[in-house]
Design goal:
Elements (H helix, E strand, L loop, with lengths): L3 E2 L2 H6 L9 H14 L4 E7 L5 E6 L9 H4 L4 E2 L5 H4 L11 H8 L1 E7 L6 E6 L9 E3 L4 E7 L6 H4 L5 H18 L4 E6 L2 E6 L5 H12 L1 H5 L1 E7 L3 E8 L11 E5 L2 E2 L3 H11 L11 E7 L4 E2 L10 E2 L2 H20 L9 H8 L19 H7 L19 E6 L3 E5 L3 E6 H18 L5 E11 L2 H9 L1 H6 L3 E6 L2 E8 L7 H15 L5 H16 L9 H13 L13 E5 H7 L5
Parallel strand pairs: 2-9, 13-15
Antiparallel strand pairs: 1-4, 2-3, 3-8, 5-6, 5-8, 6-7, 9-10, 11-12, 12-15, 13-14, 16-17, 18-19, 19-20, 20-24, 21-23, 22-23
Helix pairs in contact: 2-7, 10-11, 14-18, 17-18
The structure holds adenosine-5'-diphosphate and magnesium ion.
Length: 584
């Protein structure tokens, strides 16, 4: 397929954000491109932790000569052309930003020969300059991308890089994850001219097992149960270690959804649930698992780096994984010795009482700083351990602008947050979680608020008292056309109780008498969230601003407010450098 520039509208619908944080992010993006190009053999060469040189050569479909400049342009992609395609994207990439972002912070040399073409073409781009015109070159079919002098024009960014060894460690993790994701592709990885591993394409079950043994160790494979189960529209396959072979660290946990490595709370919770009765509380399950399902039922456009997903039917996915694994483990248990400690011990750790898909409630603490954040953040599958001292993604607050925006500094540069929109999204997600789980916690008002309403509304409030209560609103009728609000959701304690009630009643009226609140619940919660959110012109302390940033990092879909507008925008040092025409 040819490369096109995405429409401005589609660009806005794609989770935005800088993706190039460190050499490993470059490797990830380039490898994803090679995989999307249908490659069967990919070679990766790293020098000096990737800062010196990253070279990736594939045998994929190549790029048409006339598309070469577009390949390096922002928002140009051959992978999607419309919002419909975005909703069922099957490729790893689709944002059309990676090569452009890489070319803005490094020197990029791309040599490519499209399938069926006689000639190969080469194009070179340096940070901040337009790419050269394509020159003829020699190459077999496929594409090589060489990235050198990463961050050479952005010293501030280079400063945040760790030692070559650490950076290579991150790269190694990224490559291994993709090698496990795509068994049908052969990979070689070389570091400073030494071979790290070479795995051939694996086209049958034995070969796939050998690949897992090469990457995860023979011991893992020996202790693991092979999983292969198909449900209605779902398929789970791979290997899960027996509880007796659980690890003291969560360092061997690979989960792939349609070939994409993801970390996802629904999945993590389902797996923990399967192991609940079986695992010592200090131990972590080890697994390499692939879930396949219709791409239209999973949203990958949640996070710029695309390692988070949202399932349209997360309960179904949760149940399928928990049951499949649970059955496999239960079946294997008989022959595999003692099954670990009591349910109570495991329950304490994994919260067995929590409903499916529920998450730990996250209080709006204002005291949090980096260390606490790092400690609380959920461990991603196969995660690289980040230093507690590293800057969190949205960075630290610097100031408030015109009472509406929070300015923060992160590793990439500046982050501008629309305070109201961000807070509204956080409140909404939290309300949804509470509503779907333990219920919205109500808080009595010190002074109950009397509200004058129409008679019909008063009737409605009386009829739907239970619904209102489930939303955290305790309301009594005082007379024909008067209500009194006694309790409001604790999260919205500062909201105007009278307006909150009348807006919710209006929504309920619009739902119609028959509608069940479960169906329209989210609309009601969105209305409520709007009331609880910090209004423009409220002065925030730096601590409050930092708490807001940390909350955003943990909130699903916090990149957009309830009305679909972005909640924050990055302005990278690279972009600032370009604005001021530096680094030329
Ligand atoms: P995206 O992957 O989101 O489309 P990229 O900036 O990563 O955006 O790549 C832009 C385009 O360049 C891709 O859509 C693809 O058409 C082309 N491309 C990049 N790398 C390769 C490759 N290794 N082989 C073939 N085409 C490639
Ligand atoms: Mg890409």
């Amino acid at each position: 397929m040819r490369i096109r520039t995405l429409s401005a509208q589609l660009v806005n619908q794609i989770a935005a954000g800088e993706v190039i944080e460190r050499p490993a992010s470059v490797v990830k993006e380039l490898l994803e491109n090679s995989l999307d190009a249908g490659s069967r053999a990919i070679e990766v060469e790293i020098e000096r932790g990737g800062v010196g040189r990253i070279h990736i050569a594939d045998d994929g479909c190549g790029i048409h000569r006339d598309d070469l400049a577009l390949a390096l342009a922002a928002h140009a992609t051959s992978k999607i052309a419309s919002i419909e395609e975005l909703e069922q994207v099957a490729s790893l990439g689709f944002r059309g930003e990676a090569l452009a972002s890489i070319a803005s912070v490094a020197r990029v040399r791309l040599v490519t020969r499209a399938a069926g073409e006689e000639l190969a073409w080469e194009i070179v781009a340096e940070a901040g300059t337009a790419p050269s015109a394509p020159r003829p070159a020699a190459r077999r079919a496929g594409t090589s991308v060489e990235v050198s002098d990463l961050f050479f024009a952005t010293p501030a960014r280079r400063k945040f890089l760790r030692t070559d060894k650490t950076e290579f460690g991150h790269i190694d993790t990224v490559v291994r994850r993709l090698v496990l994701a795509r068994a049908e592709v052969g990979f070689t990885l070389r570091n400073d001219a030494r071979a790290v591993f070479a795995v051939p394409a694996a086209n049958d079950e034995d070969a796939r097992a050998r690949r897992v043994a090469t990457l995860c160790g023979q011991a893992f494979l020996d202790s693991a149960i092979a999983i292969e189960e198909s449900g209605a529209a779902l398929r789970l396959r791979g290997w899960a270690a027996l509880p007796t072979a659980a690890r003291t660290r969560a360092d061997l946990q690979y989960f792939f959804v349609n070939g994409r490595a993801v970390r996802d709370r629904v999945i993590t919770h389902a797996i923990r649930q399967a192991y609940t009765d079986l695992l010592h509380h200090a131990h972590h399950p080890a697994y390499v698992l692939h879930l396949e399902l219709d791409p239209a039922t999973v949203d990958v456009n949640v996070h710029p780096a695309k390692h988070e997903v949202r399932f349209r039917q997360s309960q179904v996915v949760h149940g399928f994984i928990a049951q499949t694994l649970g059955r496999a483990l239960a079946g294997a248990r008989a022959g595999s010795g003692p099954a670990g400690p009591t349910r109570a011990a495991a329950g304490r750790l994994f919260g067995v009482a929590a409903p499916a898909g529920a998450q730990r409630p996250i209080p709006l603490a204002v005291r949090e700083q980096a260390a606490a954040y790092a400690a609380l953040a959920e461990e991603p599958a196969g995660a690289v351990h980040e230093d507690a001292s590293e800057t969190p993604p949205l960075g630290y607050a610097l100031a408030q602008l015109h009472g509406a925006y929070v300015l923060a500094q992160n590793e990439e540069g500046l982050v501008v947050v629309d305070m109201h929109a961000a807070h509204e999204r956080i409140t909404y997600e939290r309300l949804k979680r509470a509503f779907g789980g333990e219920g919205v916690r109500a808080q009595p008002l010190l002074v109950p608020v009397t509200v004058a309403v129409g008679r019909q509304q008063a009737d409605l409030a009386e009829e739907r008292a239970d619904t209102l209560r489930s939303l955290g609103l305790e309301v009594d009728r005082l007379g024909e056309d008067r209500l009194v609000v006694r309790q409001v959701p604790a999260m919205l304690a500062r909201a105007d109780a009278a307006r909150l009630l009348t807006d919710v009643l209006e929504d309920l009226e619009r739902c119609g008498a028959g509608a069940i609140v479960e169906e329209r619940g989210n609309e009601l919660l969105a209305t409520m969230a709007c009331h609880g959110s910090v209004r423009a012109n409220r002065r925030l302390t730096l601590e409050e601003m930092n708490a807001l940033l940390r909350d955003m990092e943990r909130t699903e879909r916090s990149g957009q407010c309830n009305h679909g507008r972005p909640t924050w925008m990055p302005l990278s040092l690279g972009e600032l450098d370009r604005l001021f025409q530096r680094g030329r």
